[in-house]
Amino acid sequence: MSKVLDIQCPACNAPLHFNAKLGKMKCDYCDSVFDPKDLKKTDKEEVKSQDKVVQNENYVTYNCPDCGAEIVAEENTSATFCLYCGNTAILKNKLSGEFAPDKIIPFKVEKEDAIKAFREVTKGKPFAPKLFNQESNIEKITGLYVPFWLYELEVNGSVKAVGTRVSSWTSGDRRYTKTDFYDLEREGNMIYKRVPVDGSLKLDNDLMNSLEPFYFHYLEDYNHAYLSGYYAEKYDVAKEDAVKDAEMRAIESTKKAMLNDMGNYSSKTYKSDTLVSNIVKTEYVLLPIWMVNVKYNNEYYMFAMNGQTGEFIGNIPLDKKKVVAYIYMIFAFTFALIMLVSYVIFLFGGGAV
After folding, report:
1. H or E element at residue 333
2. pLDDT value for 47
3. Which residues of the chain, if any, have pLDDT below 50?
4. Radius of gyration of the chain from Cα atoms?
5. In this structure, how many other beta carbons lie within 10 angstroms of the beta carbon of residue 280?
6. DSSP-derived pairing of the beta strands 88-91 and 77-81
7. pLDDT value of residue 3
8. DSSP strand E in the chain: where?
């Protein structure tokens, strides 16, 4: 059985949505405002169970608890919307047991902030297409809670390197340079707390990494009320697999820190290390991201915004006509400058009789 839950207003029983600006749940009908932590106490979690029908290995169907419409969702979707009545549906079986998040960072920026950031994305980029950042080019904008693993790791071991010091002096009319080589080594341990790794195969890891940092001291205990009004995914990358990325980042950071701590040299070249990492703690959390899908000249572009800090990233296409015009302008300017210099040399260099 698939349990479907929507969050209802205790005052009028209308659906509630999380308001990122207020940091609270707000009813669109009676304008009542509630703290999600209080809702957790008052919500009776009256779920309406419907038979889950597996369409194929990637999709499932469920029935909206408000209007009864049948909705299709991807198998890893844990919160979505009814396309008919627009109410949020939280699939509780996707958020229980091993898939129950430990913590969540609620959205701090709203859809309008993501739209505004897209409108300004071409500022300072002279080769961007003139009409690229028009709001009409946005195909879809989605507030999404993305699954992340947070790891606390301890890295132990040593790093070896070769350092050089270069000295120069002059004797008579000769210039001498001397290079001294030193064997360097540092050992110790470092602890890294809450190293994030994207837990979704669907989302590009480089894109997710570019949205950092998230400020984890704002993590809240997980409460399904925060999902109301947004989409959410459950992880499909096991913590045993995701930890490899966290270990690699922690070890690379330790190498750099130990190299920097080896003293002042003209150069320091990494040689070898014995660094190993140990997992101290693992947390499963949901982090807020706005996904902006853009269509321009029949091409699709993906942008993303950190739903906590407002950091906005994505690749902007080049306007080929602008690039060609710039190249021609540089060529014309260079040619004109060469002709002017040639004329001056001819005029004052004895070319005229």
Report:
1. helix 320-348
2. 38
3. 1-4, 41-57, 352-353
4. 29
5. 12
6. antiparallel
7. 47
8. 2-5, 16-19, 24-27, 33-34, 48-50, 53-54, 59-63, 70-74, 77-81, 88-91, 103-104, 138-171, 174-198, 220-221, 231-233, 267-273, 276-296, 299-306, 312-314
Residues 6+ away with beta carbon under 8 Å from 335: none
Percent of the chain that is helix, strand, coil (3-state, to 5): 25, 40, 35
**Measured between alpha carbons, how far apart are the two ends of the chain, in Å?**
102
- What contacts 24+ positions apart, CB below 8 Å, involve 277-280? 277/153, 277/154, 277/155, 277/156, 277/247, 277/250, 277/251, 278/153, 278/154, 278/155, 278/156, 279/151, 279/152, 279/153, 279/243, 280/152, 280/153, 280/154, 280/191
Query: For the segment 131-146, what is each residue's pLDDT rounded down to a tens digit?
Result: 888 888 888 898 999 9
Residues 6+ apart with CB under 8 A from 173: none
3-state secondary structure of 95: helix
CA 30 to chain centre: 35
CA distances from 143 to 45, 210, 289, 304, 339 (A): 24, 17, 6, 10, 58
What confidence score (pLDDT) does residue 5 get?
A: 52
CB-based contacts of 15: which residues, under 8 Å, 6+ apart?
6, 7, 8, 9, 27, 28, 66, 87, 88, 228
Q: What is the pLDDT of residue 280?
A: 95
Residue 273: what pLDDT?
96
Give the separation between CA 6 and CA 18, rounded to whole angstroms.
Answer: 12
Considering the entire predicted model, what is its pTM?
0.76
